[in-house]
Amino acid sequence: MIRVGIVGAGGYTGLELIKMLLVHPGFKLTYLATTAGDTLIESLHPSLADVLTFEVEKADAARVAQSCELVFLALPHQASMGFARELMGYGTKIVDLSADYRLELETYEKHYCPHEDPEHLTDAVYGLIEYYREEIRQASLVAGPGCYPTATLLGILPFIPYIDTSAPLFVDAKSGVSGAGKKLSETTHFVTINENIFAYNALKHRHQPEIAEKIAKIHGARMNVNFVPHLIPATRGELISVYATLKEDIDPLAVLKAHYAKDPFIRIRENPVDIKSVAGTHFCDIFAAKNGNALFVNSAIDNLLRGASSQALAAANLMCGYDEGMGIPTIAYVP
Ligand SMILES: NC(=O)c1ccc[n+]([C@@H]2O[C@H](COP(=O)([O-])OP(=O)(O)OC[C@H]3O[C@@H](n4cnc5c(N)ncnc54)[C@H](OP(=O)(O)O)[C@@H]3O)[C@@H](O)[C@H]2O)c1
Question: What is the CATH number for 187?
Answer without folding.
Answer: 3.30.360.10
